[in-house]
Amino acid sequence: MSQYPGWYYDEFKQIGVNYTDLEEVQAYDLRMQKLRDTEYEANRIRELLKIKNTDLILEIGTGTGELALRFSAYCRKVVAIDISKTMISFAKMKAESQRKTNIHFCNAGFLTYENYDEPFDVIVTQLALHHLPDYWKMIALKRIYGMLKEGGKFYLRDVVFPSFVRNYDSYFDKIITDLKISAGDEIAEETEIHIREEFSTLDWIMEGLLKSAGFCIESVECDGFMAGYICIK
Ligand SMILES: C[S@@+](CC[C@H](N)C(=O)[O-])C[C@H]1O[C@@H](n2cnc3c(N)ncnc32)[C@H](O)[C@@H]1O
């Protein structure tokens, strides 16, 4: 971060769960394999965004690389970035074992990645933007806008809190209690850390940030505290 001014946000410092710890990364990968159907997720995003085999895709906050690996079969090239070197090495190993040759991994993030190549057709980020405070989300979204082709698509899926809630204390208590029953203590504990220490924001703030960055929001899908936005440049 030495080339940035002293006031620039250090996105490499870990917020909430420490994703530079290999044990944490391995545990995350196992949990996600148990709880999520990443093949379904990738296919759904592919259909929603109408990804083509000529597309150049950027995935930000790739984590263990599941989405990038699946997209790579259906596009020209994926650039997959993450601020955690451990996550990037883990994802790279998976790609090598699957003989994927059209994924470029890079240790960088929303606020530091520089694209010296052609602009992207599609940019995707899942469960990562909440690591930045709201002002820096705005800077991240403006940078994403700048890296997309005219008419390019941006897909953002993240934890976003709904504004219809009357009592947030009981809302969050119920989320944790329900998660303990449906997904176990570990996920419930991780969610407590998320609410307490990470920077998930409210739906109206997220929509305002996307619009101020220049995006046209084509559709929003909400499922509890998860929201998925398809945006067009
Ligand atoms: C909860 S994981 C999600 C990983 C993956 N996208 C998924 O859906 O499973 C969050 C990821 O975002 C990464 N991350 C955190 N802050 C970031 C930033 N400023 N830029 C890029 N990635 C970031 C973390 O290192 C971690 O790999």
From TrEMBL:
It holds the Pfam family Methyltransf_25. InterPro entries: Methyltransf_25 (IPR041698), SAM-dependent_MTases_sf (IPR029063). The keyword Transferase applies. Gene3D superfamilies: Vaccinia Virus protein VP39. One of its GO terms (biological process) is methylation. It comes from the Archaea. SUPFAM superfamilies: S-adenosyl-L-methionine-dependent methyltransferases. Keywords: Methyltransferase, Transferase. GO terms for molecular function: methyltransferase activity. Residues 57-152 form the Methyltransferase domain. This is Ribosomal RNA adenine dimethylase.
